[in-house]
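FYI - complex with glutamine, inputs then prediction.
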Amino acid sequence: MAAIDVIGLTAERAAALLRAGECSSEELAGAYLERIEAFDPALHGYLHVDPEHTLAAARAQDQSGNVGLAGVPIAYKDLLSTKGVPTTAGSKILEGFIPLEDADVVARGNAAGLVSLGKTNLDEFAMGSSTEHSAYGPTRNPWDQTRVPGGSSGGSAAVVAAGLAPWSLGTDTGGSIRQPAAFCGLVGLMPTYGTVSRFGVVAFACSLEQVGPMTLTVRDCALLQQVIAGGSERDATCVGLREPIVLPEPGRLDGVRFGVPWAELEDGVDPGIRERFDASLKLATELGAELVDVELPYARHGLAAYYVIAPAEASANLSRFDGVRYGLRVDGPDLRSMYEATRSAGFGPEVKRRIMIGTYALSAGYHDAYYVQAQRVRTLIRRDFDAAFLGVDAILLPTAPTTAFPMGARMDDPLAMYANDIFTLPVNLAGIPALSIPNGLVEGLPSGLQIIGAAHTENTLLRFGAAFEQAIGFDPVPPALRGGAA
Ligand code: GLN
């Protein structure tokens, strides 16, 4: 049988091939593993691949008969616990840590018959926007290997864009699914807070983060969301879905009202991004939608509020890495020096920066001035969105103000790195869903269109996304991989 061409292969199509008996899950996994071996050394999208393990899981699916999505491969961000499989969170402090249990989302993937190809690279503890903060070295963008893939789920984005997995899971605390999806020409969904279990996800900022799909198409995104979303007794904040996720069909947008927060677009947006955004607004009206001016006056304070709240939660969450319970230990003459030596050696500079900011913001003298104040701003941002959604079905914004930046460009300037999340993190502060879809190229690099909705409107976002996807007509395969022979 001819080798399977997996470049540009959607998960939906892979499932159809398996069900029709046109290939086995073992052959499919084998085709991805071959590509991983050939191309991942340059890209470094994966932190852990175990071909024997993957092929055995694929054979088990073949033997049980491939139904639904059974036998389709997937890649998991290395922030998700995987039973018996190393889980590092991109940090030295978790080197050698092997979880005893699967994260709920991984367990749901297993129950659907998905076959893990491996664990993907990320910024340490998901803190970053470029994957350069991984303790294991950066990932490169398959569209241009001199550039970052975005972050923190940069590995999950790069492997899908390069045809080293049909789809993947990422996590999003302030943009970490949507921004790398935009930088790598993919679809990414930040689900409504509380619809996907966080059990077994290495915690960064619990009140902000959710796991979500990173895929080649909007339909794949819906399919993967069907797998991972749902209530869990192991995550008290997880209420599950209000209605089942529906597979979207592209169509017109007659009668749809899209809010555009013009004031947010005035500064700091690259002209090429703005051009692509305006072109998609025009497409929306051609499809029958109406554009409505909306105001989100507090959204611009999202960046400041996020960089108090997220580090505050991180400083508490990361206190568990003490050299006793997980991974790395650096011995010292007494307990306190062991803690210090372990944490000094185990955490990278960005993580230390966040722990210091968070500890400071929560300290007795500054708690009200910083943490409480940031929570107040968070409430105001949520109210801005609530007010806007009284008059519109969804809000449109670019996903990020730039395309993928050159590697190293922002490493010495944390504020410039943080600023890349300006359009994504208000969504996390409000706990609402947003879908990023490819919005065409700017000087050869992908850009993203972000569609933001009220809580529990995933089906609406996916339907709008499918309409834009068809109208925009983006090819998610990077030019160097086209023609099959890369
Ligand atoms: N870039 C943001 C940060 O560094 C968001 C990260 C994320 O979503 N995990 O906090």
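Residues 368-389 form the longest helix (22 residues). The chain has two domains: 11-255+392-414+422-481, 299-377.
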